[in-house]
Amino acid sequence: MILYTINGSGSDSVLALAKYLNIELEVRPRSEFRPALEAVNPRATVPTLVESQDIAITETATILRLLARRHGPELLGESEYIQTKVDELVGFMSTVVYQGYLLKFRPEFYTSVEAHYPAVGEKALQVLKSNLQSWEFLLTGSQYLVGDKLTIADFYAYVLLKWQSNIAPLNETDTPKLFHYWNTLKEPRVL
Hints:
The chain is of the alpha+beta class. The protein folds into two domains: about 1-70, Glutaredoxin, CATH 3.40.30; about 75-185, Glutathione S-transferase Yfyf (Class Pi), Chain A, domain 2. Helix content is about 55%, strand content about 10%. It is built from seven helices and four strands. The chain has helices at about 10-20, 30-40, 60-70, 80-105, 115-140, 150-165, 175-185; strands at about 1-5, 25-30, 50, 55-60. The protein has a four-stranded mixed sheet with strand order 2-1-3-4, with helices on both faces. Helix 4 runs antiparallel to helix 5 (about 115-140). The radius of gyration is 17 Å and the shape is globular. The mean pLDDT is about 90. This is Glutathione S-transferase family protein. InterPro entries: EF-GSTs, Glutathione-S-Trfase_C-like, Glutathione-S-Trfase_C_sf, Glutathione_S-Trfase, Glutathione_S-Trfase_N, GST_C, Thioredoxin-like_sf.
């Protein structure tokens, strides 16, 4: 399988999961393989996973689910309730939370006036603060996002919280559960 990537993107979630599950991927940076990527995904978004010439899969959450179904189904959740909570959190992260980071990192998606970029960036900080509060409320796990075992939600969260650390690090006062979770997730033995 081929994985088209950009360092620091959702690709990192897929790479971490593949490493965890000992899945061999041919990693192709988009900057070096853009024409080949556009041939299978005209939008050239990453991550893009290619299984054969005519099967390309995009979207971080979808790729994580596919790899887990095939190579580590326990990472989807061990009960129907846990699976549902994993889906809820992955959906929440890939829509609501991701939107705040998109505002911050890609203001050109929201305005064509470059002079407005700083205002979009400020709005992003407000949105992210609100999203982190909502995320804090959704946490059900003790050590991990959902329950006491690693799931694909943790792999997705890893990248988002890395981004957060570069914008405004989590703190114990505003989001204590997320703060402790992130410190656990960063430990080398976890991911």
